[in-house]
Amino acid sequence: MTVLATAAGTSRTLRVDRPVPLDAIIGHLRRGAHDPTHRRIPGGWLRATRAPTGPALLKIITTEDGVRGTAWGAGAEWVLDQLPALVGAEDDPAGFRPLPEHRPLVEAQRRFPHYRIARTDAVFEALSASIIEQKVTGSEAYGAFRRIVQRYGEPAPGPAQQRGSVAYGTMVPPEPRTWQTIPSWTYLRLGLESNRSRTLVSAAGRASALERTLGRPLPDVDRGLRSLPGVGAWTSAEVRQRAHGDADAWSIGDYHIGKNITWALTGEVLDDDACEELLEPYRGHRFRAQTLLGLMGLQRPRHAPRMTLPTHTPYAQERHRRIR
Predict the structure, then answer these.
(1) What's the burial of 229, exposed, middle or buried (CB within 10 Å: 0-12/13-18/19+)?
(2) Where, by residue number, does the polypeptide cross the bilayer (predicted)?
(3) Euclidean distance between CA atoms 102 and 105, whole angstroms
(4) Positive/negative CA dihedral, 165, 166, 169, 173
(5) What's the sign of the alpha-carbon dihedral 73, 213, 195, 139?
């Protein structure tokens, strides 16, 4: 990578011998359309994160021969060093071969041959957001995440603090000790009931140990994550997908994904056990198969009413009153 440091931030250009589909790669990291930590911009993305060396704002745009990253803040050097992993340059799809009978997956690989899996190297960041998404609808989870980050995070450095900049308003997630100090009743008002907030506070106390899982064998990482109270197979998979770049960590236990995969590959809506059987030939790349099918927009037909939000939080209760 070439490096250029200016008053407008430190930039590095990463040359890659293939197109880099940033929307597919970075888009998976965003927690809903209004996530204050990620923003799509013309030609690329903004990502606000908390590096081991401090908060950082990273701007990533595509170039003719790769990507260029520009970063601000105490964590700027770290996020630029991590840029190849973030844009999937270290992901290896070798060995992934869709079966001929799985025609949607064959077509997905043909249409998205340059898709690669991001690795953020930010374990607690991925875990905290995934805990918030446990056992609730996406809209409720994304809303709670946004409210917590906006209240307890901090403005991202650099142009994020300059009104009128495309980065204005982006936020760095709270540091682990801040998550620990938020009272349970405040979590409830922001959209998190006691089970999830307890899991989150407990995980925040293990944040340093969680970061040490980077580079460890992935089965060990899975066991370590699932040893935490309130963290099961689904949450572990969601973390490993993002923080560790685990190409095999398919979202087992998700309400929709197993059904969507089985419908896409067989025409029938089946359970997670059947989905695991279907994905077995892709072991080592099961999350890759899941994502490629998702990029195709393949979702089972839905004939039932949409799920309604639980009513155990003040925000959900207010929404329930409005839509009744």
Answers:
(1) exposed
(2) none
(3) 6
(4) negative
(5) positive
Q: Is the dihedral of CA 87, 222, 75, 198 positive or negative?
A: positive
Please give the structure tokens belonging to residue 285.
């790349």
With bands split at pLDDT 50, 70 and 90, how would you rate the model's confidence at 21?
very high
Give the whole-number percent of the chain exceeding pLDDT 90. Answer: 85
3-state helix, strand, coil in the chain (%, to 5): 45, 15, 40
Domain ranges within the chain, ordered by starting residue: 2-243
pLDDT tens digits, residue range 269-285?
A: 999 999 999 999 999 99
What phi, psi does 170 have (nearest 5°)?
A: -70, 145
Q: Per-residue pLDDT tens for 225-265?
A: 999 999 999 999 999 999 999 999 999 999 899 999 999 99
Q: What topology does CATH give the domain 2-243?
A: Endonuclease III; domain 1 (1.10.340)
Residue type, 138: G
Share of the chain above pLDDT 70, in %: 91
Q: Report the C-alpha gap between 128 and 230 in whole angstroms.
A: 12
Residue corresponding to tokens 């105490």: 74
Contact 189, 314 (CB under 8 A): yes
Contact predicate 88/24, CB 8 Å:
no
Report the mean per-residue pLDDT for the chain: 91
Distance CA 69, CA 258 (A): 35
Residues linked to residue 70 through DSSP beta bridges, in sequence order: 11, 59
Which residue's entry shows tokens 């079966």? Answer: 99
CA distance 243 to 118: 8
Angle at 256 (CA atoms; ends 187, 190), nearest 5 degrees? 10
Pairing of strands 38-41, 9-15: unpaired
Q: Does the structure show a pLDDT above 70 at 101?
A: yes
